[in-house]
Amino acid sequence: xxxxxxxxxxxxxxxxxxxxxxxxxxxxxxxxxxxxxxxxxxxxxxxxxxxxxxxxxxxxxxxxxxxxxxxxxxxxxxxxxxxxxxxxxxxxxxxxxxxxxxxxxxxxxxxxxxxxxxxxxxxxxxxxxxxxxxxxxxxxxxxxxxxxxxxxxxxxxxxxxxxxxxxxxxxxxxxxxxxxxxxxxxxxxxxxxxxxxxxxxxxxxxxxxxxxxxxxxxxxxxxxxxxxxxxxxxxxxxxxxxxxxxxxxxxxxxxxxxxxxxxxxxxxxxxxxxxxxxxxxxxxxxxxxxxxxxxxxxxxxxxxxxxxxxxxxxxxxxxxxxxxxxxxxxxxxxxxxxxxxxxxxxxxxxxxxxxxxxxxxxxxxxxxxxxxxxxxxxxxxxxxxxxxxxxxxxxxxxxxxxxxxxxxxxxxxxxxxxxxxxxxxxxxxxxxxxxxxxxxxxxxxxxxxxxxxxxxxxxxxxxxxxxxxxxxxxxxxxxxxxxxxxxxxxxxxxxxxxxxxxxxxxxxxxxxxxxxxxxxxxxxxxxxxxxxxxxxxxxxxxxxxxxxxxxxxxxxxxxxxxxxxxxxxxxxxxxxxxxxxxxxxxxxxxxxxxxxxxxxxxxxxxxxxxxxxxxxxxxxxxxxxxxxxxxxxxxxxxxxxxxxxxxxxxxxxxxxxxxxxxxxxxxxxxxxxxxxxxxxxxxxxxxxxxxxxxxxxxxxxxxxxxxxxxxxxxxxxxxxxxxxxxxxxxxxxxxxxxxxxxxxxxxxxxxxxxxxxxxxxxxxxxxxxxxxxxxxxxxxxxxxxxxxxxxxxxxx
Length: 796
Prior knowledge:
CATH superfamily of the domain at 586-758: SPRY domain
Largest sheet: 7 strands, antiparallel
Main location: membrane
Number of helices: 4
Number of strands: 47
CATH architecture of the domain at 586-758: Sandwich
Structural class: alpha+beta
GO biological process, one term: regulation of cytokine production
Distance between the termini: 42 Å
Shape: globular
Family: Belongs to the immunoglobulin superfamily. BTN/MOG family.
CATH class of the domain at 586-758: Mainly Beta
Membrane topology: Single-pass type I membrane protein
Keywords: Immunoglobulin domain, Membrane, Metal-binding, Signal, Transmembrane, Transmembrane helix, Zinc, Zinc-finger
């Protein structure tokens, strides 16, 4: 992606836009007269470039290059022209690719050592080669040669002469200098491969080694004595400091409690008509350990924030990460761990945009944050998530010896955050699933991992241990060569005994399975017979109840529970069975309770339709009304027709009796943990009100008239929503905890919208359309990123 933007942010829809290589005038992409000019493109870019133009009216444009090649690497220029005036800017594209894992082999003795060769191919740009021993010590003296193929990809061959016979393992690692990604392979060098040394040379080496060890021992002893003295002194000073810090912390807690009470009072007084809305990034912000993180927030509409009070704090506490008031930073209110590490990016405060930069990011910075904007008595806030990630050391793989009937291989790595994922693979890429791993966390919050694998197949000559950071997607790996003599030789009697025991176990298992299946079939036949008898009796009772309920339906006072087939549907739990159960439900009468309606809502005389008043007293309120009769058990459904204006915002579903229907409009109010199971429309998109919001597929097309079926199974804890126009599944809340009485819930916040309950009393035995099986909702391809997390809007 090659992005460029205009300042100030004026529309570029009617401008001439061009992207070209800086060393030539041939176009990579051209846009003029509101369309692409394909005839001007360079041949190598034909069919591979397109314009990302959904923000042209905001002065932002970018060119997407697909199927990136090595030849795309280099400098580019973007050119914007309107009339006779033009401007341009430079960009640099760094292309990088990770090639094959290195292959290491012994080519024979050379001079007074063993020659080892490492080869790899398909890398870009030119990779870096490193040789290490088992302790991680680098070999500096080696040769390497690089070649480049027709596609511009590099191959490398590096040779190392190992002269120290005590170096049993050497590792060749290939590093991409742009991506920082590395692939490595280790090889075991048996001692007989080394030339035999003279006995005098051995005696000299032993004497020299003993002398060095003695010197090192004396140095270590002296250093340890000094360290212990310094440690005792440091612990004494730390205890004194800790006592003082505890005293200060108590004072700060008391101050924070008072601030919290003041904050609650301010929020109560802020129930006014909205003046602005604060939005934050909808995707988590990813920061690398030791680097920088920027936590941005902006106002809508884009009014100046220069004279406002701005705060960023951790969402689980009220302690301040950064505070800005009276046009300056308030350092005395800042949390100690953030002192000296935060600053305000305030060059766009007059445009309603502000951000806090956190330097020297630590693992403890990971988590949720809140940005808070206040002007006078009105304030708003928005949530952000910071994901801290760090790539630690490359894995170290070693053979610890034979174990059971195989070879035990151990892989260790440290300094990773968050908890890394470990994978073992053979040379063909096949994964090993059976291995053990243990994670530990140091004082700085960084993870260390130790994974152990027992390789039992002697044909597996190479195994690779890879450590993956799940946030960054970055991986480090190391391979090791396992010589065949390391595997224990099996006794022929042991093999014969194992085969005999296996056959015996298979025969016993087969006999047991046959006996169990026969018994299960008998019990199944008996159970089906009992179920048929129970179902027949239940059908008879249900018909009597339905006739009684139909007689009471004239009062419109309660829902008709689903009768026939309820127990049979409950016997199966698959999605097809649940959809079948819904399709056999009977529609029930739902009437609206005017006593529960908001003052800005109008309920029809028949109590089946609700709309907003033409002139609302509180335009920013969300207005809701409940069904007249509560639901305490059974299955039921009703249908609602929504006549939806272009700017409408609404929600429907069920809520628990006695829930708080007042307060701010947001995912943390109308969510299952607050007693609401609803779907709705907000900001011209459809959502399920989960935490966070779930974007629904209905957002892709306008629905001026939408007919929604609401299916409730109180006993199973399931509520599902279907588009009754085509039978498609919208969303399901499964395994919900319904305690007590539920009421149908209808909410209208804004727009020209009406909601009408259109279920007929008694209904038909089937639904007007066939229902598709419920499935997990999926994100919409190409949906804007800002829809992934909810907006916060003004309080009522």
